[in-house]
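writing this on my phone so excuse typos. first protein, seq and then structure
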Amino acid sequence: MSSLSKTEQSWRDSAAKVVEEMFPLTAQFKWDELLDLRQSLLSENDWKVTLRRFVSCREELEADHYLPFYRLRCLLCAHLRLEGVSGYELRNILRRDTLMKALLRSDAKLVEV
């Protein structure tokens, strides 16, 4: 049995479903990255790991899947909180790859709300 609350699991399941919707329209050689992102969204507790996978997939696939990545960004913003960084909101950071990569290199923490 999962140690996650129903709310935590619910939004994680929704995020995983968004990723699953991309499989039929994505070349099979890119499925491993999507599978890693899906698994990370479902069970990873280190949100920087999940964000790295999100960035990697987005760089590769966003041109063909803009709407699913937008939906994922909205889910992440609604359910994660940024700690240790002032002057930036998570939703603004997730819109820009350069800011997101800087966040991943920083000491900032992402926590589930």
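second protein below, same order as before
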Amino acid sequence: MKNYKTILILIIAFTTILSCSKKDDELTFDELMVENSPWSFNGVELSNVINNGTEDFDKDEFEKNVKEANENTSYNFYFDGTGEIFYGNEDGTTINWKIINNNQLILSDDEWESTFINLIVTQTNLEFLSTNMTVNLDVNADVKYLFSKSIN
């Protein structure tokens, strides 16, 4: 009888281990974005900078200035496809969002819509890319937006 109990316990333990596969624990990008909101803005990274002007452009200075100007900005995403952008203590600005092809993020409101590529979402980080964006009068660049999970 003792052997039957041992076998039963082993079968239950083995079944439990198999039923808890890693795939079941993985969250979708939508779930990660909502469940880890709010996201704090950490800055931008420029790449593929093209300066068509005659004035020098300081990439590092630009990135630093954007980070400082938006240091209290955060994004909240909700399951109904809406969200809010908060700039410091101001009331939130309502936005709409959706993920397509599991790698593109569309943000919009009644007046604008932007599609970002190379979407990466983890439990702690969010990033997405805008290509060939005008960042200064005669300067275009790819702009990667960087966020981290806010600690409440």
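Helices lie at 2-19, 22-25, 29-35, 59-69. thats all i got for now
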